[in-house]
Amino acid sequence: MMMETEQTAADIWSFQPQSELNWLELSALSGTSGMAGVDEVGRGALFGPVVAAAVILPDRAWTELVAAKIKDSKKLSSSRRTQLAQQICALAVDWKIGFASTAEIDRINILQATLLAMKRAVLKLNVQPALCLIDGNQSIKDLLLPQQTIVKGDERSLNIASASIVAKVWRDELVLRLASKYPMYDLTRNKGYGSQKHLLALQEYGPSPLHRKSFRPCQIKC
Description:
Blueprint: H1 2-15, E1 35-41, E2 50-56, H2 59-67, H3 78-91, E3 94-100, H4 102-108, H5 110-124, E4 131-135, E5 147-150, H6 153-156, H7 158-179, H8 187-190, H9 196-205
Parallel strand pairs: 1-4, 4-5
Antiparallel strand pairs: 1-2, 2-3
Helix pairs in contact: 3-7, 4-5
């Protein structure tokens, strides 16, 4: 049954023109309640944890979020993301954050750390989802719940787009709190990603304890 749902979702998305109403919850997944959207942020950053959110929206929230012009978090301004994150958390049946530390990223690699962060977010939920919609093409290992991967899910699923926004706002706020401890890396502006100023600071000062030592730009020879 799950494979039939996945094929239907993919077929509908492939042959329909993209529009603001072309969300899977309003088409291929209509009538399916209790879904959790799961997405991560910070996978490509040099500093700080990788963070995931799991968000369960009630059916009534879908039209409200479409009207609010919800999008993939990367396509929103910082202020708009914050506004939407507050709206999403107020509407959600449940939502939780999970993360994997820089030490875990360095030990098990960024892909496995990303999946671990996603798993932690889902397992923290107080409400058990009927189906987990996972952004990307990698299933979460040993997650004893039905799951469906969706490539570019933050552009296709309202639940995943919501998780993307909540995770992004949570991680940005964390990095901003840490920025005052490590002012030389310009974290306030780059949020831990490899901007030119960040890379130059790594060359000059070396990595901090919260940099990902397994990432090549952080492997500075003293």
